[in-house]
Amino acid sequence: MQHLDTYIESNKDRFLNELLDLLRIPSVSADPKYKADVARCAEAVKQRMEEAGLDKVEVCPTAGHPIVYGEKIIDPTLPTVLVYGHYDVQPPDPLDLWHSGPFDPVIKDGMIYARGSADDKGQFYMHVKAVETMMQNGGLPCNVKVMIEGEEEVGSDNLGLFVSANKEKLAADVVLISDTSMIANDVPSINTGLRGLSYLEVEVTGPNRDLHSGVYGGAVANPINALCEMIASLHDADRRITIPGFYDAVVELSATERAALAEAPFDEEDYKKDLQIDAVRGEKGYTSEERSSIRPTLDVNGIWGGYIGEGAKTVLPSKAYAKISMRLVPNQKSDAITKLFQDHFVKIAPPGVKVVVKPHHGGEAAVTPIDSPAYLAASKAMEETFGKKPIPTRGGGSIPIVALFEAELGLKTVLFGFGLDSDNIHSPNEKYGVFNYFQGIRSIPRFFHHYAGMMNGK
Ligand code: BES
Ligand code: MN
Ligand code: MN
Questions:
Q1: Alpha-helical regions (H) of 99-185
Q2: Fewest CB atoms within 10 Å of the CB: 144, 233, 256, 382?
């Protein structure tokens, strides 16, 4: 594969500059004011996929943001890899914490700073460049279908419909996704699981209008106080979630599985230092790594109400709100957990307030095999490019479409991610290593080579 590395090396500047151009397009899927930018980004992705040598490249409209699809079928009897990624990004807020513009990418100390650099433009674009590299150096060893969507960060609802409606078009042997992270640049790893998600918004209403907190305070339920009490009661002293039935479907890992997870290097002191916290906190009986991957969680993502402007205003507010997410593990069903939360949260409301729970998006957890030809091909590819065999690890984030690929298309996924947890995804100053970008571009053709070889029984 040396000639491929040489090709990549001699096109390094162009490969980087093309990514920077994509990063300049603010393809924020959550905010309607970026709709035209999202559409422009889809067109740019289409053009790049065509230039890389993919056939039948199209921008497929949906009820929301479009999906970009292209393929290269060299021989229908050969295996097919379905590459998935997303060109949409999270909102860049809070803007004042960025050291440079979120859509004005800069390279500093070997890192590409921009919203979407790691999640997921920098990672899906590695596949486009890997396809180009293979096409320019003897061709692909098997078929590829590439599907890059524009709504991952808002729950992939329209992609779910697209997948169900296009089973034949998307027929493949395995899904390959670069949208996760590794342990460290000198400790390569492959994610073998994702958590599911249930996301809701709650509204607590007290009196019919804002009141003077002196005139009424003490005699009328304050919805913010009530909301805080209710949220606090959702964890017990062992930091377990108190919603009845919440853990019923959770499958406990065996001691062997837990021991295997514990083998991944993890330094709790470094972890605390990096986050400037003096202690970790989580469910009793589990390590930090377990708490953030194989255990379900409940977190408040935002909470507001009352007066939050300058200075003080004495007010007993009429309403309080919170956005709450629960990360789920395999066998917990997102809809069922949402229902459990809804019933419980309404029930624990103290007298004098009314509660409305509004479900947002959800998604199911997924686990991927570590003994499949595709996993072994990915492992071998990374071992060649990093000089070390990657460690399988369970991840804590969510990519809802992974469970749907399995349910609808019968396909398992390989999470071939090259980011790092320290990339600040969804946060100000998101970054992606130039090293990581090129390691991905070097590793992907090796994956195709090994996968095609293994599937041919070689
Ligand atoms: N790429 C992330 C998921 C991820 C990141 C998985 C790091 C493992 C390690 C993805 O873009 C993402 O942010 N997903 C959302 C879910 C979605 C429904 C909004 C998430 O996990 O919050
Ligand atoms: Mn992502
Ligand atoms: Mn994301």
A1: 121-135, 157-165
A2: 256
In the reported structure, the alpha carbon of residue 374 is separated from the centroid of ligand 3 by a whole-number distance in angstroms of 24
Environment of ion ligand 2 (residues, CB < 5 A): 119-120, 179
3-class SS of residue 298: strand
Nearest-angstrom CA–CA distance, 123 and 12: 15
- The pLDDT tens digits of the residues spanning 162-179 come to 999 999 999 999 999 999
Residues with CB under 6 A from ligand 1: 119-120, 152-153, 155, 179-181, 194, 197, 361, 363, 395, 397-400
Residue 384 falls in the annotated catalytic set = no
For the chain, which domains are there? 2-194+365-455 (3.40.630.10), 196-250+296-363 (3.30.70.360)
Contacts of 339 (CB under 8 A, 6+ apart): none
The catalytic residue among 18, 88, 132, 290 is 88
User: Structure tokens of 344?
Assistant: 């419980």
Render pLDDT for 274-305 as a digit per residue (tens, 0 to 9). 999 999 999 999 999 999 999 999 999 999 99
Beta bridge partners of 225: none
Q: Which of 94, 219, 88, 95 is nearest to 148 (CA)?
A: 88
Minimal-distance CA residue to ligand 1 atom 18: 155
Q: What is the mean pLDDT of the chain?
A: 97
- CA 375–ligand 3 middle distance (angstroms): 23
In angstroms, the CA 378 to CA 397 distance is 20
pLDDT tens digit sequence for 221-263? 999 999 999 999 999 999 999 999 999 999 999 999 899 889 9
Q: Classify residue 248 as exposed, middle or buried by CB count within 10 Å of its CB (0-12, 13-18, 19+).
A: exposed
Q: How far apart are the CA of 213 and the centre of ligand 3, in A?
A: 41
Q: What is the pLDDT of residue 458?
A: 46
DSSP summary character for residue 184: B
Nearest CA to ligand 1 atom 13: 153
